[in-house]
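Running low. Any example?
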Amino acid sequence: MADITRRLGWRHLRSAPTAHIRHHKRGRLVHDGRGLSFWYRSLSAALSEVPVDDRELAMAFHARTADFQDVTVQATVTYRISDPAQAAERLDFSVDPDTGSWRGAPLEQIATLLTETAQQHTLDVLARIPLADALVDGVASVRQRAADGLAAEPRLPATGIEVVAVRVVAIRPEAEVERALRTPAREQIQQEADRATYERRAVAVERERAIAENELASQIELARREEQLVNQRGINTRREAEEQAAADSVRTEAEAARKVRLARAEAEAARETGAARADAQAAWLRVHGETHPDTLHALAATRLAENLPRIESVTLSPDVLTSLLTRLGRPDGGAGA
């Protein structure tokens, strides 16, 4: 929309480079072009503003396929006004000289024209194909048919409108039909997911079996080695016992031999000692046999005196002394008393 300012009964218009301004004064075209800026009086001016930039028109409408299924078509048409003078003559692009706003709704008229034209050709295409084909190849077919139909529409160039591009965003069936159509694919995807799950579980079971077999093999190998260890320990223990028994036998034999030798030595010593004692006893007896009895009595008394307790003094009566001396063979009691 153009910018309009007021100054002392005059109006000043300044337009954008994408807007084509037509200024008529008293039925005569005074200004005509883009991005104009000029002064005018509102009572004598007739202004038109035609946008010449590219415009996007989004549209959505319903159609029916060959198998009587309702679908929604979403499309976008890009257009521009290539002949502003012709568009201003066919449509009402006049603006208020005081505010600069359109008096009518020219863009809505263009949108209605483009939408109805595109819808007419889209309905013609979709009515000839079933729903499945419309969902698979319908986008390209509808886009091509709508573009060709808009290019061949005589009202558009007569109004100064040029279609730049046609895009079909989507063709969608009703929600229930769409869910029904998605079901086989979902089931197939679910089957693939289940198959992948089963395969993964099978692989997991196989791996667990392999792990279990490895563990069992490890346990068997460990048991075998333990058996070997037990056998080796038994062999070592038996060998150690045999060695110990042999050592004990050798030690016992040595001890027995030592004891035999010792006993023999002790017996020999005892025998020699006994012989010596016998010889000494015989000699002692022989000496005693050759000795006078009184001498033996004296020796016996001496030995007896050696074994008696110590006596400090002894008092003998004359009778006892005489009797003793008599027994010692000294009746006179002489010397040696």
